[in-house]
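Notebook, student rotation project (T.W.).
Task set for the rotation: take a protein with a known small-molecule partner, predict the structure of the complex, and write up what can be learned from the model alone. Partner molecule chosen: pyridoxal-5'-phosphate. Sequence and SMILES entered below by T.W., checked by me.
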Amino acid sequence: MTDVTDHSSQSLDSRPERGTAAYINTSHISHNLNVFKGLHPGKIIAVVKADAYGHGLKNVVPALIDCDAFAVATIEEALALRQLNSEKKIMLLEGVFNDYEMSLAIAHRLDVVIHQDYQVELLKTVPATHDMDVWLKIDSGMNRLGFRLDQLADKLNIIKDIDGMGQIRLMSHFASSDDIHCQQTRSQIKINDQIKTMGYEYSFSNTSAVLNQLNTHEEWCRVGIGLFGISPLGMESYGGDFKLKPAMHLSANIIASKYIKAGEKIGYGGHYTASQNMRIAVVGIGYADGYPWSEHNSAVKVDGLRVAVLGRVSMDMIVIDVSKLKHKLTGKQVTIWGNDLPIEAVAADLKLIPYALICGITKRVKYHVIQ
Ligand SMILES: *Cc1c(COP(=O)(O)O)cnc(C)c1O
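Predicted structure of the complex:
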């Protein structure tokens, strides 16, 4: 937080910087990994797909050096990660799609997930001298990727006989691990319990499953969003409840402020009408930076005060209610989400999920790494 606070106390200039920036706190990321090590004594796979959930892969990877493996979604992500870490296990969550990707997986020692027959066929191109670790995916009820449980023995038999295979492991994915009592989760747990008896190592739990203590200690947990300090549980659950610390602090500056009269409208479509005389400010962040357009509005934080966003989000700007603030505002730094404004709350206001917010930050936003 220190760096961020220091910026807001700088002397205000009449020509402000737009200052739209994401501060990535790498010690918070290491701290969060340690929190998960406390919750899960077994192996932890750090999921860093989508440019480490919008935090910047190169910023994040060094902070996660104590994880047991990494996971990403695409071959491009895996290659970028291999450049940053030449040693660690990397799991390709959707596996490979063609011979070329398989050749890259071989060359860069990637673990592949196998969820379709065409991928079983691609395994046959692995050189006999290689030992490729394979994660056979079972669809335990999400109806996304994976073989059905009744196909598993058959697929295992085929894969076991292919040359060049290393360890074969099993995996599955929860659809609703944020809700441990729902029927779907209970029936997925039953299938996972069957998978556990098959004599292979396995991986089921994502962040929600670990936070909800669905993880079995022998398994490899796949933790993504929690490493960034965020609770995916919804229902007014915050990372802080689990001692997690936000990895991203997103801020932007006030670039203009003005007084308007009762009855005047604000922004595109005139969606907000002032019910009284107000002081408003314009902040240099919009949906082209990753502050999402939504039917619903949230708030930002200025000088420790939570103030409403008014009217529609523009491409490059939002308008906020600063009626309670008296001093000069131009150039002042505003928290969009982060240390003093939990992203979980902003997402709930916007009727979005925090995943969509962090993954939505665009390249226009400047990144600063805080150790
Ligand atoms: C993204 C992903 C994860 C990580 O999920 P979080 O909710 O971010 O912890 C785990 N497993 C799979 C298959 C994924 O695609």
